[in-house]
């Protein structure tokens, strides 16, 4: 009997530790974030790597996607980007929104079509319309705001997000290992589910956490 009780206690303890680790990993729930000026986004997703979150409103009648991409825990000498890839699941072909704080303290935010791996994120027009583009840096977090016209891109998108260093005001190549090569997946604009490149999804992970309760 004593052995069974010890085994049961160990099992319960391990379960509690696992639940604690899971809840800590997903402690930054995007749904709890408040934007200034009472700005509201109906749907959000905790992206699985790079301390990133996507908030959005999607209008099915006009196919307009209003987004706020948040990248937390980032220094002022770093760039961030969020992109849609209309043709593939990787970086090449991505239509990116890029932002960083310049050496004079002002924010630069612009569009950049990614045509090759060795890119310095040159500015250029995207394959879809972009309006209301802006960015802010505060409390070690960069937020990119934009409205995208996606009339020909459907409701299931390939998304990519990324970050890297700066040389002065020039973006440098990002790290090519770890989380920086895992930051891609799918986004369902109707259900709000964000899938990962390995087939998982943010909703599934949140549901796993709730099973601990």
UniProtKB/TrEMBL annotation:
Q: Which UniProt keywords apply?
A: Electron transport, Membrane, Signal, Transport
**Is the keyword Membrane assigned to this protein?**
yes
GO CC, alphabetical: membrane
Q: Please list the residue ranges annotated as the DOMON domain.
A: 50-164
**What highest taxon heads this organism's lineage?**
Eukaryota
Q: Where in the cell is it found?
A: Membrane
Give the signal peptide, or none: 1-27
- Region Disordered: start and end of each range? 192-213
Sorted alphabetically, which Pfam families does this protein's record hold? DUF568 (PF04526)
Q: Which PANTHER family would you find in this protein's record?
A: CYTOCHROME B561 AND DOMON DOMAIN-CONTAINING PROTEIN (PTHR23130)
Per its record, how is this protein called by name? DOMON domain-containing protein
In its UniProt entry, the species of origin is given as Gossypium schwendimanii (Cotton)
């Amino acid at each position: 009997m004593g052995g069974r009780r010890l085994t049961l206690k160990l099992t319960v303890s391990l379960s509690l530790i696992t639940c604690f680790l899971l809840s800590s990993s997903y402690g930054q729930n995007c749904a709890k974030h408040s934007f200034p000026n009472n700005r509201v986004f109906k749907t959000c997703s905790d992206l699985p790597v790079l301390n990133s979150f996507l908030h959005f409103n999607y209008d099915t009648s006009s196919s307009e996607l209003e987004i706020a991409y948040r990248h937390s825990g980032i220094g002022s000498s770093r760039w961030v980007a969020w992109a849609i890839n209309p043709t593939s699941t990787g970086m090449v072909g991505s239509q990116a929104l890029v932002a960083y704080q310049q050496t004079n303290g002002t924010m630069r935010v612009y569009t950049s079509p990614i045509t090759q791996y060795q890119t310095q994120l040159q500015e250029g027009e995207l394959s879809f319309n972009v309006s209301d583009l802006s960015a802010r840096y505060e409390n070690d977090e960069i937020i990119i705001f934009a409205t995208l016209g996606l009339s020909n891109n459907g409701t299931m998108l390939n998304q990519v997000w990324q970050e890297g260093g700066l040389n002065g005001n020039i973006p440098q190549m990002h790290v090519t290992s770890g989380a920086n090569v895992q930051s891609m997946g799918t986004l369902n604009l109707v259900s709000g589910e964000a899938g990962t490149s390995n087939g998982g999804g943010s909703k599934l992970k949140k549901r796993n956490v709730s099973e601990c309760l």
